[in-house]
């Protein structure tokens, strides 16, 4: 478990990100209640993706400045890097 406040924020924000995205995917792909073309997805992305990027920044700060050695913070940093890479690479393959 993280010891620093920044580490706890990093893990918490990325947990929020992962839960929100997983719930959205379940609602669309499995339960077929919602659709990715609806406006709710735009709001979900606009709220959750910045949360993951903020978690990346706080995680890097916790490791660099406060010497946080928690496995969860390192996983949070990894998820944040994957989010940034997804945002950058996704724009290359949009076919709108």
What does this structure look like?
With 96 residues, this protein is an all-alpha fold. It is 77% helix and 0% strand. The protein contains three helices and no strands. It is elongated and about 45 Å long. The termini are far apart.
Labels describing this entry:
96 residues, mainly alpha, 77% helix
Topology diagram in text:
Blueprint: H1 5-30, H2 39-66, H3 71-90
Helix pairs in contact: 1-2, 1-3, 2-3
Portion in strands: under 5%
Number of helices: 3
- Number of separate domains: 1
User: Which radius of gyration do the C-alpha atoms yield?
Assistant: 15 Å
Q: Give the SSE order as H and E letters.
A: HHH
Helix content: over 70%
Q: Biggest sheet: strands, sense, closure? A: none
Any low-confidence stretches, pLDDT <50, length ≥5? none
Query: On the 0-100 scale, what is the average pLDDT?
Result: 91
- State the total count of DSSP E strands: 0
Shape, principal axes of CA atoms: elongated
Derived structural class:
mainly alpha
How far is it from the N-terminal to the C-terminal residue, by CA? 43 Å
Question: What is the gist of this entry?
Answer:
The chain is mostly helical.
């Amino acid at each position: 478990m993280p010891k620093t406040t920044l580490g706890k924020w990093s893990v918490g924000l990325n947990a929020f990100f992962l839960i929100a995205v997983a719930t959205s995917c379940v609602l669309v792909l499995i339960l077929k209640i919602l659709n990715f073309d609806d406006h709710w997805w735009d709001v979900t992305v606009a709220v959750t993706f910045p949360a993951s990027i903020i978690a990346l920044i706080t995680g890097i700060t916790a490791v660099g400045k406060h010497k946080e050695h928690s496995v969860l913070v390192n996983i949070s940093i990894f998820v944040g890097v994957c989010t940034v890479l997804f945002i950058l690479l996704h724009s290359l393959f949009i076919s709108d």
